[in-house]
Amino acid sequence: MALAIRAEGLVKHYGETKALDGVDLEVPEGKVVGVLGPNGAGKTTAVRVLATLLRPDAGHATVHGHDVLKDPRAVRSLIGLTGQYASVDEDLSGTENLVLLARLLDFSRAGARAKAAELLEQFELTDAAGRAAKTYSGGMRRRLDLAASLVGNPSVLYLDEPTTGLDPHARNEVWAVVRKLVANGVTVLLTTQYLEEADQLADSITVFDHGRVVAEGRPDELKRRVGGQTLQVRPTSLRDLDVVYRILGDLTGSGRPATTTRAC
Ligand SMILES: Nc1ncnc2c1ncn2[C@@H]1O[C@H](COP(=O)(O)OP(=O)(O)OP(=O)(O)O)[C@@H](O)[C@H]1O
Ligand SMILES: [Mg+2]
């Protein structure tokens, strides 16, 4: 399968911090790859390198065959980026934000207005189109952010934690938008801290930790590896252990649980 993104051996160090410590990443055309990892794992750093915003110390990456270092203009013409933090201008309305971006991308005046109207409609923001973005709810702002990253009709979209901080309803709206884009053939690289989000949207998941890839696979494969549930119970008195075993056995339908007994 053709690759939309291929990164090999990406390294980026900030002093002692190894933000990226030899990352390989492949995103097939038309697929969604989720990069999952905790705070500081290197997700945003990887996105910034792939978006030509940051030079890696070592390694190389291509987007549809164009090298991010040697041919950044070609890469930029193919990609859209919704950064981790809102990038729209708070004082401009939804329409003004999108028209501004379209004009910067060389749309004609009429073309820019038409593109803005089309995106606002697609993201169900038409009713709020004339209001300043600072009056939007978190979910609406995120949708406007997403709309902004689509003005240039990207074939590859980077979404850096698109739903962090959103309530379940707003999160579902963003997920629906992403699914629609993918149905239209857009390739998506999505970072997230939530296995559930990667599971919902991604065809495959790459797990980052401390700047390294620590696991990779389809969501169901990864869940099978890490999906067990753990219940830790500490009775106030050791004498109650047998009762606790019995109750837990009844509750979980399992045999005697694994125990560690420590004198406290
Ligand atoms: N400009 C910078 N200067 C110094 N250190 C940086 C810089 N950018 C990132 N780092 C460090 O690199 C590491 C990776 O950061 P990065 O932002 O890529 O993580 P992340 O996975 O996106 O985390 P989060 O989930 O919190 O957004 C962190 O330890 C961070 O402090
Ligand atoms: Mg980040």
Automatic annotation (TrEMBL):
Species, as recorded: Lentzea waywayandensis
Alphabetical GO biological process terms: daunorubicin transport; doxorubicin transport; response to antibiotic
Protein name: Oleandomycin transport system ATP-binding protein
Cross-referenced SUPFAM superfamilies: P-loop containing nucleoside triphosphate hydrolases (SSF52540)
Superkingdom per UniProt: Bacteria
UniProt KW keywords: Antibiotic resistance, ATP-binding, Cell membrane, Membrane, Nucleotide-binding, Translocase, Transport
InterPro entries per the UniProt record, alphabetical: AAA+_ATPase (IPR003593), ABC_transporter-like_ATP-bd (IPR003439), ABC_transporter-like_CS (IPR017871), ABC_transporter_ATP-binding (IPR050763), DrrA (IPR005894), P-loop_NTPase (IPR027417)
One Pfam family cited in the UniProt record for this chain: ABC_tran
Domain ABC transporter: 5-235
